[in-house]
Amino acid sequence: MDDTDRAIVAALRVDGRMSVRALAEQVHISRANAYARLERLQRDGVITGFTVRVDPVRLGLMTSAYVSVSIEQGSWREVLAVLEQLPGVEKVALVGAEFDMLVEVRAHDNHELRDVVLEQIQAVPGVRATRTWLVFDEWST
After folding, report:
1. What is the CA radius of gyration of the chain?
2. What's the DSSP call for residue 120?
3. In angstroms, rounded to a whole number, what is the distance separating the alpha carbons of residues 120 and 123?
4. Which distant-in-sequence residues (6+ apart) come within 8 Å of 40 by Cβ?
5. Which residues in the chain belong to E strands, given as ranges?
6. Domain HTH asnC-type: where (predicted)?
């Protein structure tokens, strides 16, 4: 990756719907070069897809939390496979800390959050313990 590739990725992170023409103008390359670079970035796995960012509150997801998860040794693949399928689980990170995974959960209200944590995450085979941090407010960069 060179500086132009990094500029393309940065521009698309701000506006994934940007036209190739606008992208080429912004990074000062021809449209043909922009198409070729986009194709290569996708083929090489640098760009893995295009998505939409939403405001979770406007979507009705009024409650969010970070949940630390301690798991049985060697079970992270199986636990991850189940966590990824749970409703409300936005993100899962394998971490080096006093716990093994950090899970971001969004829910409509505290009752739904409670159900996700206490009845679904804690029921996953391999999960030994959880700890929940309620998010009061958040900002995106």
Report:
1. 19
2. I
3. 5
4. none
5. 63-71, 89-94, 101-107, 127-135
6. 1-62
Residue 59 and residue 69: Cα distance in Å, rounded?
Answer: 26
Q: In what order do the strands lie in the sheet with 63-71?
A: 89-94, 101-107, 63-71, 127-135
pTM, two decimals, is 0.75
- Token reading at 28: 């000062």
Enumerate domains of the chain plus CATH numbers: 3-43 (1.10.10), 63-135 (3.30.70.920)
Considering the chain, what is the average pLDDT of its residues?
95
Whether 139 has a pLDDT exceeding 90, the answer reads no
The helix/strand/coil state of 133 is strand
User: How far, in Å, CA of 133 to CA of 105, rounded?
Assistant: 10
- The tokens for 59 are 């979507």
For 31, other C-beta atoms within 10 Å of its C-beta total 14
Please check whether residue 78 is in contact with residue 126, taking contact to mean a CB–CB distance below 8 angstroms: yes
In angstroms, the Cα distances linking 13 to 16, 23, 25, 38, 120 are 6, 12, 16, 13, 33
